[in-house]
Design brief:
420 residues; endoplasmic reticulum; repeat; 14-stranded mixed β-sheet; ANKRD13; alpha+beta; single chain; ANK repeat; signaling receptor binding; two-stranded antiparallel sheet
Length: 420
C-alpha cells in the first residue's frame, strides 16, 4: 500500500529531494513541506480537487493558516480556471454559432410574504441578444446601499472571437462610458480575497438531487385537477412540484478566533442593512492592514504507514482539531414546463456543457433525460430562505435573423473609464 502513492508519501514526509526527482526537476535538499506545495504547484498540480470528505487543498490551507500558501493556491486556482476556459473557448464559439441568433427576456426576482423584507428584495428583467458568437446582456440593477437598490442602464458585451482581455466589456449607458472587464485580478484584489478567506468560515455546499422527483401540482379541495398556467402570456405550461431537493452544507472555523466570530456576526448584520463589506483595515501609517499567518498547529505524530492504511474517510487529522458543523435542508420547489417554448433543454445543455463543463455532466444530461418532465422550464420558483423565494421566468424567446451588429460595438462617443 505504501508504495502505491510515492508523490503523496514525499509530501507527507516533506521529502522535497525525492519529490523533485519524481517530478524530473532539479534537486532541492531542504526538508520543508511548504516547498513540496510550491513544487507541486509549479508542475501544474490541479488545485480544484477534493478529498473523500469534500475538502479542497485551499480549504486545508486556510485551516493551517499560512498566508503565503493560501495566496499561492488561490493564484494557481484562478490561473487554472482561466486556462481551462481558454481551452474551451473554441468549442464555446462553435456552439454559439450553431445555436442560431436569438433575442430573450429573462426575469428574475426574489420575493417574500414579509412586507419589510419584500421591499428590499431585488428584481430585474435581463434582455439578451445573441448574434454569431457574440452576446449582449442589458440590465438595470447597479448597486445596493442604504437598504435600497440603485437602478441604471448597464450592458455587458461578450465577443467570443476577441482575445480574453477584450472579450467582455461593461457599458454604462447613462454615463456613456465603458470598461473592459479584467481577465485577471489585481494584486490588491488577490490579497483582499486572501484576507476574506482567512477571516471567514470554510464552507462546502452542494445541492443533492439523489431523491428528487416531480409530481404534477394540483388545485381544488374536493375535485382535484392538474394545475396549468400561461407563463408570460404566451407559454401554456404544466406546473410540477419538485420534491427531494436537499442542500447539504458543511462549515469549519477552527482557524477563527473569538474576535473573528464577533466581527463576522457584526458584518452580517451590517450587510443585511445595506452596509459595505470591509474585511481589511488601515493602520496608523495609512497602510492596508493584512492578516498575518497563524501559528502552525503542532507537528503530527502520525506515521506514513498509519496515514495511508487508514479506512477511507477516516484519515487521521494532521492539522488543527476540526471545529466542524454539518447541516442539510430540504426544499420543495415548483417548475412550469412548456412545450411551446422555442428553445429545447437539449440545446441549452449543449451550450452549458461548453460554458461550464464539470466532471459529472453526463449524469446531469441523464437526469434531465430520465426525470425532467417534457418541455422547457419557463418558470422556476425555489425557496432559498424560510421567508424568501427566488423566481426565474423566461418571458420571451425568439430566433431572429435581423439582430443589428451595432448592438455588439462600443459607441464611438463612449469614453473608457478604467477606475469604475
Amino acid at each position: 500500500m505504501t508504495e502505491s502513492f510515492p508523490l503523496h508519501e514525499c509530501v507527507f514526509n516533506g521529502d522535497t529531494r525525492k519529490l523533485s526527482l519524481l517530478l524530473r526537476t532539479h534537486e532541492i535538499a531542504e526538508k520543508d513541506k511548504h516547498e513540496c506545495i510550491f513544487l507541486l504547484l509549479a508542475h501544474g498540480a490541479p488545485v480544484k480537487v477534493k478529498n473523500s470528505q469534500g475538502w479542497s487543498p485551499l480549504a486545508e490551507a486556510i485551516s493551517y493558516g499560512d498566508r503565503q500558501i493560501i495566496s499561492s493556491l488561490l493564484r494557481k486556482l484562478k490561473q487554472q480556471a482561466r486556462e481551462q476556459m481558454e481551452q474551451r473557448r473554441p468549442n464555446l464559439v462553435k456552439a454559439l454559432k450553431q445555436m442560431g441568433d436569438f433575442y430573450m427576456e429573462l426575469k428574475w426576482d426574489f420575493h417574500s410574504w414579509v412586507p419589510l423584507i419584500s421591499r428590499i428584495l431585488p428584481s430585474d428583467v435581463c434582455k439578451i441578444h445573441k448574434s454569431g458568437c457574440s452576446i449582449r446582456l442589458d440590465t438595470t440593477l447597479v448597486d445596493f446601499s442604504d437598504m435600497r437598490w440603485e437602478r441604471g442602464d448597464i450592458s455587458f458585451i461578450f465577443k467570443g472571437e476577441n482575445p480574453p482581455k477584450n472579450s467582455l466589456t461593461a457599458l454604462d449607458n447613462e454615463c456613456r462610458c465603458y470598461q473592459h472587464v479584467r481577465h485577471e485580478e489585481t494584486e490588491m484584489e488577490i490579497e483582499d480575497e486572501v484576507d476574506i478567506l482567512m477571516s471567514s468560515d470554510i464552507l462546502a455546499a452542494q445541492m443533492s438531487t439523489k431523491g428528487i422527483s416531480f409530481t404534477k401540482a394540483q388545485s381544488g379541495w374536493i375535485f382535484r385537477e392538474d394545475r396549468r398556467e400561461t407563463v408570460a402570456g404566451q407559454y401554456d405550461s404544466d406546473l410540477y412540484t419538485i420534491n427531494g431537493l436537499t442542500l447539504e452544507q458543511r462549515k469549519r472555523r477552527e482557524h477563527l478566533s473569538r474576535d473573528d466570530l464577533q466581527k463576522n456576526k457584526a458584518l452580517m448584520e451590517s450587510l443585511t442593512k445595506g452596509g459595505q463589506s470591509q474585511q481589511g483595515g488601515i493602520d496608523q501609517n495609512g497602510e492596508i492592514y493584512r492578516r498575518e499567518s497563524l501559528q502552525p498547529p503542532p507537528n503530527s505524530e502520525v506515521t506514513w504507514e498509519e496515514y495511508v492504511s487508514a479506512e477511507p474517510g477516516q484519515y487521521p487529522n494532521l492539522g488543527r482539531e476540526l471545529v466542524y458543523k454539518e447541516s442539510s435542508k430540504n426544499f420543495k420547489a415548483t417548475v412550469a414546463m412548456s412545450k411551446d417554448f422555442p428553445l429545447s433543454v437539449d440545446m441549452l445543455l449543449n451550450v452549458l456543457e461548453v460554458i461550464a463543463p464539470f466532471k459529472h455532466f453526463s449524469k446531469l444530461r441523464e437526469f434531465v433525460t430520465l426525470k425532467l418532465p417534457s418541455g422547457f422550464p419557463v418558470k422556476i420558483d425555489i425557496p432559498i430562505l424560510p421567508t424568501v423565494s427566488a423566481k426565474i421566468t423566461f418571458q420571451k424567446f425568439e430566433f431572429r435573423d435581423d439582430i443589428s451588429p451595432d448592438l455588439f460595438v462600443i459607441p464611438e462617443d463612449y469614453r473608457e473609464d478604467t477606475m469604475r
